[in-house]
Amino acid sequence: MLKTTGRFRGLLTAAAASTAVVLAVAGCSSTGGAPRDTGNGGAGVGSAGTKALTIAMITHQQPGDTFWDLIRKGAEMAAKKDNVTLRYSNDPQAPNQANLVQTAIDSKVDGIALTLASPSAMAPAVASALKAGIPVTAFNAGFNEYKGMGIGQYFGQDETTAGRAVGEKLTQEGAKKAICIIQQQGQVQLESRCAGVKAGFTGGSVENLNVNGEDMSDVQSKVTAKLQQDPSIDRIVALGAPFALGAVKAKAGTSSKAAVVTFDTNAAMIDAIKKGDVAWAIDQQPYLQGYLAVDSLWLYLTNRNTIGGGQPVSTGPAFIDKTNVDAVAELAKAGTR
Whole-prediction pTM value? Predict the structure, then answer.
């Protein structure tokens, strides 16, 4: 069982049970690219017995970030179950993501699930969707902002609380100096994570390191330079699995003994934890976020149900380390954790 933090334990138990149900069939996934329809073919489609719906999922996914494969698999599984055509699109640039929302509105989709990494840029598009009578669900980013936009449902983790849990763990481990790698400067969920790490790390200090997450060579070169410049750094905190793995490579080119830890996982990260290249990761269950974002819209559209009573539904955080990594290893290989 995963190690959970404080008030999230009960929520994560329920979330794990929900995930176990939807894992009965594996979904398909691809990364990045233009919008595409998913989920109107194959066995089990339409098993909900309700009319066909179209839901757009629009994220701030960066090219090559495998974290979003898990989001999409969860969304596609819910779409199969609910007789939904899923239209997935993404762009890491906030104005472009907002344009994708407007495109979905213009195409008269039945519902929109989106991330709010740049809330101010997304607010007008959200307002347009709601004015058009299209229900909107937020997930993954925008924990503190979704209510102010008039969005009724949110699925994800409180990034500040998750960051604080990381900081507290660093303190417990006796760490003294950490860098927190931000792959997209200014995105609210990433800035909140590092702010939380600083708040929880009472035993030492944290310095943010901004990198270009769309260019792994930039990530590695900046981490290498920082480690060479400051040998007192004993922890490297990454905000995503690909960047943690990049930090492992960067560290290998130096004499640094700093331990690498990270938010979020993928199959390669599970192997890295097993090998000891990464000490631990904190998981927010992205598969579950994608699943609930779509399923909640289906529930609302077909039965006017809402989840969470207007409050955010927490899907994390939970720690994964050598003591429990085997419990999720097979799921990671299947591409659902």
Answer: 0.80
Q: d(Cα 191, Cα 169) in Å, to the nearest integer? A: 19
CA trace torsion 305, 311, 315, 321 (10° rounding): -170
Length of the chain equals 337
42 secondary structure, DSSP code:
S
8 A C-beta contact, residue 178 and residue 235: yes
Q: What is the pLDDT of residue 49?
A: 81
72-97 average pLDDT score: 97
| 276-281 contacts, C-beta under 8 A, 24 or more apart | 276/322, 277/245, 277/248, 278/244, 278/245, 278/248, 279/321, 280/169, 280/319, 280/320, 280/321, 280/322, 281/241, 281/244, 281/319, 281/320, 281/321
Report CA-CA distances (Å) from 88 to 92, 233, 294.
14, 40, 11
Q: What is the C-alpha end-to-end distance of the chain, expressed in Å?
A: 14
Q: Rounded to an integer, what distance in angstroms lies between the CA atom of residue 268 and that of residue 248?
A: 12
User: Measured between alpha carbons, how far is 198 from 222 in angstroms, rounded to an integer?
Assistant: 21
Q: Under 8 Å CB-to-CB from 142, ≥6 apart: which residues? A: 115, 116, 117, 119, 122, 154, 156, 188, 189
Which has the minimum average pLDDT: 7-11, 119-123, 148-152, 315-319? 7-11
How do 318-320 and 259-263 pair as beta strands? unpaired
**DSSP SS3 for 30:** coil
Burial 107-146 (b: 16+ CB within 10 A, else e): eebbbbbbbbbbbeebbebbeebbeeebbbbbbbbbbbbb
The structure tokens listed for 38 are 């998913």
C-alpha gyration radius of the chain:
19
Could you report the per-residue pLDDT of 159-173, keeping only the tens digit for each?
999 999 999 999 999
Question: Which helix or strand (DSSP H or E) is residue 332 part of?
Answer: helix 326-333
Which position has the higher pLDDT, 337 or 83? 83
Helix, strand, or coil (residue 86): strand
Instruction: Please give the distance of CA 28 from its chain centroid, rounded to a whole number.
Output: 18
